[in-house]
Amino acid sequence: MSTPSAYAELVAAHARLYRFDHLAAILSWDRSTMMPPGGSAARAAADAELRGLIHGLRRAPRLAELIQRAGDEALDDVERANLREMRRDWLEANALPETLASARALAGARCEHAWRSQRPANDWSGFLSNFREVVHLAREEAVHLADATGLAPYDTLLDRYEPGMRTAVLDRLFGALQTWMPDLVAHAQEAQRNMAVIVPAGPFPLADQRRLCHALMEVLGFDFSAGRLDQSAHPFTGGVAEDVRITTRYDERDFLPALNSTLHETGHARYAQGLPRAWLSQPLGRPRSYAIHESQSLLLEMQVGRSREFAEVLAPLLRTYLGERAGFDADNLHRLLARVAPGRIRVSADEASYPAHVIVRYQIERALISGEIEAEDIPTLWDEKMLALLGVDTRGNYGDGCMQDVHWTDGAFGYFPSYTLGAMYAAQWFAEVRRTTPEIGSQIAVGNLQALFDWLDANIWSQASRWETSELVCRASGTDLDPAHFRAHLEARYLGAH
Amino acid sequence: MSTPSAYAELVAAHARLYRFDHLAAILSWDRSTMMPPGGSAARAAADAELRGLIHGLRRAPRLAELIQRAGDEALDDVERANLREMRRDWLEANALPETLASARALAGARCEHAWRSQRPANDWSGFLSNFREVVHLAREEAVHLADATGLAPYDTLLDRYEPGMRTAVLDRLFGALQTWMPDLVAHAQEAQRNMAVIVPAGPFPLADQRRLCHALMEVLGFDFSAGRLDQSAHPFTGGVAEDVRITTRYDERDFLPALNSTLHETGHARYAQGLPRAWLSQPLGRPRSYAIHESQSLLLEMQVGRSREFAEVLAPLLRTYLGERAGFDADNLHRLLARVAPGRIRVSADEASYPAHVIVRYQIERALISGEIEAEDIPTLWDEKMLALLGVDTRGNYGDGCMQDVHWTDGAFGYFPSYTLGAMYAAQWFAEVRRTTPEIGSQIAVGNLQALFDWLDANIWSQASRWETSELVCRASGTDLDPAHFRAHLEARYLGAH
Q1: C-alpha span between A402 and A217 (Å, rounded)
Q2: Quick one: pLDDT at residue B233?
Q3: Residue ranges of the alpha helices (H) in B302-416?
Q4: If you count Cβ atoms within 10 Å of the first and of the last residue's Cβ in chain B, which end, N or C, has fewer?
Q5: Burial class (CB in 10 A: 0-12, 13-18, 19+), A492
Q6: Cα–Cα distance measured from residue A197 to residue A190, given in angstroms and rounded to the nearest whole number
Q7: A116 found inside a domain
Q8: Is B108 inside any structural domain?
Q9: Mean pLDDT score, A435-448
Q10: What pLDDT is recorded for position B396?
Q11: Are A255 and A199 in contact (CB under 8 A)?
């Protein structure tokens, strides 16, 4: 019997890890959708056991040795790409000393647990007492990673979510955005001021909304033989590629939260369902990055879902499932979905003002990690920036201000930029689809999304982590990320430019 | 630092196993209730990984060494009982050589997979071609276990489900049953012949039945903060003590399947929810046996659920959730639930004729394991015995005959007796409750089951695996299993004896 090659042994180890990750993903979905509250303590202990097992397998020193040896083996291009992703995975799992990793997890969990009641109570000073430790450990983490990689501290955090992304690039992208976005929002509001919009009157029974969401997902090509739609407080896409579990949330008074989150999560879901079967058990088969993932959800929610053409698809769906109501015509629906109204809350922001929420968070967290500011300086900066970018007064409202998101609470610095990068990528994909299929608009108006999905399948889904992000982007659309597409999209939709 | 005692190390190892078992239980529930069909192949691989891990932990040679050493440590009575159950667990996990265990699992899986289409096709000879191997391996297994334990081969299989149960006891119990049961069934049918029973007319919308089942479970004290009710093809109780997942099945034309299976599974569920918290992670904290578990489900489904008194509780529930219909009065409901009508199918058998189904299977499987008969002899024996015990003609109908259950299909010989042992225990518990709380009948009629549940909690649930079965039974009811209670119960209910 011949010695198995190092690469083959790595493939087997990752296939095993993939199977344990499968179980962890389904269990995590269950925790958010099905588990009764009384089950949570025992489940937390059981989950920790599995996480510890997976973490140990990912950190195994044997893997490092195999990765080293496999580098000298005769591998084809695909195998070499897989080895690159294996190396990234191993580095990430081993990036932090165990003591720092658990201190960080503990501080994040403590801060988040208290935040759940501090946010509704607007208790900034209570929050601050836990959050200081979260910031302290995130800095320590960033410095540790910077020493190991040679990157700047904040870049090491960015790199975790967007491999290859750097502060210099974000500064340029977001800096430019910042110069034209406030005007665009103001002009859009001005243009919409005298536009009559009917807000369809509820109630909209949940069972009806559920059927609507299922029908919408059918139109969007979700494969129900390999996935489900359920309900949770915060919508998410979970499960595994072979069994994708998405959730939405329902509000009896308003059908838009369910509609929008179903569009959004179905975008994530189709990426997962479209990942290449042959690579699924390997790091190569994973989605490319958080921003690329977000580009899939925003492509459906924003590029398609808020287009005038798609309103032609939505109108009859709404009439069928929610009944005939004033406002369920395509013109009105489009105006309703495309309303620009800056507010305090990121997750309910309109498409045009959303990037401002990201820019504010990016600028603050970058300064926080570099040590230019301290945690207690956040509210003042928050108020200034929200006023400057969106004209929104946030003073004194911490709960709907800098305490509104869970990301900082549990130390996920570096994550926020993915949202706006995703919006930019989505605009770039859609521009490319429009270029290669000029009739895509009229196809969408009759519910035919095949050309769009074929393009996504060929260029994004089937490529998984085959290429580094910028190569994936170039191969798909001819150039690296070009923010002009996003600007042109917003101007066309909100200022009527063509 | 002192060396941890062997017993303490065993406790820690079992707590870890308990956490992995928790995950496996929730995943298994998901597979039967939530998983879309497309997820099954990837899930099977992932589940196998977890099962292999758990099996390896349970078989660890280190445990045998620790169990040996712990026997010489100063343990209190409870610890000693836990050690006894640890030893049982280790012996069970190590009972078979790996090659035999996997051959058995493989043959069972192959036979079961083919059976799913062979049963509806009434394909006995196709079934036989796989089943012969299942029987062959079960005999090999029984002989292997007999060599190791000194028990008779079939007793070693019995012992897996009912620790301590022996063929000699079953022969006595079932032999006696067999002498009076056919007459009782015949007399009950005779007495019911001229009894008018209204079968309430459907349809009964599933959503209404679902609400009915929830309301029923509330009456039965199910803790919804630590459990759920869902739907599956075959009702079962799954999950873990801290998060009990029961299922029922719905038939739009008939509310009885949902009603009966909800009563049944809630009985299992209350046992699980009542297990002692302090022992949960240890073998000591497990349910005592399959028959004792079944006694809990049959106590609610049969002793309580089919009593005239409980019909007073059911009638208003049915009217509230399913609407006013002819037949939803307590008298008629009781007659409907207590109808005796022998048939071919075990799972839909009435209370009085059910034991015949078990006796037939018991006598056949015992002869099969001992080698007195071969697999191809089963149909003839089946026909003879079903005719003799129930007057039912089963000739030529294999699918609803000896192929109707999954138990033999996957080699679970020794399991069937648990059902009737459970019915006997349930009658014994209820007789004891009636003795200690003479007014229990009138309490039940007004939906007050507290005295019953207090007795079960004190005598069964909280005792978990603290005692060997016969000691548990003696402590709870003053004597070991006494089948006279079951006979008296059936005679009182079906022949009007008091």
Answers
A1: 34
A2: 86
A3: 308-322, 330-337, 354-370, 378-390, 406-409
A4: N
A5: exposed
A6: 14
A7: no
A8: no
A9: 97
A10: 95
A11: no
Q: Which residue of A has its CA nearest to B19?
A: A46
Of B20, B36, B48, the CB nearest to A224: B36
A382 and A293 housed in the same domain: yes
Can the peptide bond before residue B153 be classed as cis, meaning omega within 30 degrees of 0? Answer: no
B78: containing domain: 6-94
pLDDT digits (tens, 9 = 90+) for B30-57: 999 999 999 999 999 999 999 999 999 9
Q: What was the pLDDT predicted at A119?
A: 95
Does B356 have pLDDT greater than 70?
Answer: yes
Summarize the confidence of residues B409-431 as an average pLDDT.
Answer: 96
Q: Are residue B414 and residue B360 in the same domain, yes or no? A: yes
Q: How many beta-carbon pairs under 8 angstroms link A with B?
A: 100
Please write the tens of the pLDDT for every residue from A320-341: 999 999 999 999 999 999 999 9
| Residue B123: predicted pLDDT | 97
- The verdict on B157 and B64 lying in the same domain is no
* Domain boundary, last residue among B78, B94, B110: B94
Best of A51, A223, A228, A242 to disrupt the B interface by mutation (most B CBs within 10 Å)? Answer: A242
Cα–Cα nearest to B142, from B366, B477, B454: B366
Measured CA to CA, the distance from residue B73 to residue B207 in angstroms comes to: 57
Between CA B434 and CA B437 the distance in angstroms is 5
Tell me if B368 is assigned to some domain: yes
Q: Which of A36, A45, A280 is nearest residue B19 as measured by Cβ atoms?
A: A45
Residue A298 · residue A267 · CB < 8 Å: yes
Q: Is the pLDDT of residue B389 over 50?
A: yes
Confidence of residue A218 (pLDDT cuts 50, 70, 90): very high
- What average pLDDT does this structure show over B207-231? 98
User: What is the distance between the alpha carbons of residues A197 and A338, in angstroms, rounded to a whole number?
Assistant: 10
For the cut 70, the answer to whether the pLDDT of residue B295 exceeds it is: yes
Distance CA B438, CA B448 (A): 14
Name the domain count of chain B.
2
Q: How confident is the model at residue A2 (pLDDT cuts 50, 70, 90)?
A: low
Say what the pTM is: 0.94
Q: Which CATH number does the domain housing residue A400 bear?
A: 1.10.1370.30
Residue range B197-213: mean pLDDT, rounded:
96
Please give, rounded to a whole number of angstroms, the shortest distance from the CA of B264 to a CA of chain A: 21
Position B113 in a domain: no
Write down which residue in A94, A115, A133 finishes a domain. A94
Give the separation between CA A169 and CA A441, rounded to whole angstroms.
Answer: 32
Catalytic residue from among A79, A85, A141, A265: A265
| Residue B265 annotated in active site | yes
User: Which residues of chain B make contact with A228, given a CB cutoff of 8 A?
Assistant: 34, 36
